[in-house]
Amino acid sequence: MSSAGTQLGKPDSAKPQHKLYALLVEDNALDAALVVRALFKDGFDVTADVVQDEPAFTRMLRTHPPEIVLADYNLPNWRGMEALKVLRSEGLDIPMILVSGALGDVTAVECIRQGATDYVLKDGLARLPEVIRRALREKHERSLRRQVEEDLARKVDELARSNADLEQFAYVASHDLQEPLRMVAAYTQLLAERYKGKLDENADKFIGYASEGALRMQVLIQDLLAFSRVGRNGASASVDCNAVMQEVLQTLDSAIQESRAVVDCAALPAVWADRTQMAQVFQNLIGNAIKFRQLEPPPVISVRAEKEERNWLFRVTDNGIGIAPESAENIFVVFQRLHARTEYPGNGIGLAICKKIIERYGGKIWVESADGSGSTFKFTMPLHSSNEKEGIQP
């Protein structure tokens, strides 16, 4: 028997069903023949090569990779477990089963822990065929899982590229549309100023429609540009949400005074994000709470945060008109509006921007509300690391 690889023949009396190519790491020709015979008797149409050392084993892997490796634990010049290292170095997912004359339970468990598929004693070869069948099934399942994971990863990459292309298109389109639309808006306003009352009533009406439509389109394009910029701009850093809230309340000061709103903001934590984008989130949520208010009483808005497992959980609660449960998901869709423009102004993009910002940092946002009884918008922001200050800033 040659260490370079000896091929064993098939007993003539067998009637095999399952073709199998095995590589045996074995120094005893009789033991190798008994292994092949046991497999043949149990329905395997088996072809086997036998090697005794690492060079021959490596050479056979590269020239004729087997479906299964059956390795004796102890050889004169090599140990069967060394075959596992060679399989790994070659990047091959081939089950390796130890077939040994004597192998203690502790040693066997340690071999399996290191990566051997299973072990069979030479005086119990009757169980070897079933062990091989199980090992081949597990290998097939691993192959299927890898294929599914690779397909999923490819689809994720394709989706990411598609989203990036769409984002780039939205950015370029909205950016490039601003200048010609600015001209349309300027000239329709000029027409309205110069010719109002000089033409007939219908002309004044039509010019008004054109001017209003151009101005609304300008706002729409600016909103689309703002949406497309999320993820393109902004560097992450530790952001003190208390300082951000002070800026937001200053920005919304006139709306707060006009609506007689009361904004109660407790101490908030620092989060890892872009400061401008966090300001957008708070400004949209508080601005919406002021906009979608009841006639009476005046708006009361509460902003709170607490640590929940590995996230900060923020709550922005109001006593406004509320949201019907069936609309709780739709409100985060771009340009999704629940009310006519004559009732409430805007293009329905603010919450979509909030969602995009929050999800960019690994968080999520949702609303809990009932029609007519106020809303609570909740969103999470992950704790950045164990080194991040986890206390709420006073």
| Rounded average pLDDT | 83
Count of the domains: 3
Give unreliable regions as ranges: none
**Main sheet characteristics:** 6 strands, mixed
Shape: elongated
The number of distinct β-strands equals: 13
Helix proportion: 40-55%
CATH architect. name of the largest domain: 2-Layer Sandwich
How big a fraction of the residues is strand? 15-25%
What's the Cα radius of gyration? 36 Å
Number of helical stretches of at least 4 residues: 10
CATH topology of the largest domain: Heat Shock Protein 90
Amino- and carboxy-terminal Cα gap: 81 Å
Report on this model:
By secondary structure, the chain is α/β, with parallel strands linked by helices. It folds into three domains: 6-146, 3-Layer(aba) Sandwich (Rossmann fold); 156-229, Helix Hairpins (Orthogonal Bundle); 237-382, Histidine kinase-like ATPase, C-terminal domain (Heat Shock Protein 90, 2-Layer Sandwich), CATH 3.30.565.10. 47% of the residues lie in helices and 19% in strands. It contains ten helices and 13 strands. A six-stranded mixed β-sheet has the order 1-3-2-4-5-6, sandwiched between helices. The longest helix is centred in the middle third of the chain and has 68 residues, at 128-195. The termini are far apart. The mean pLDDT is 83.
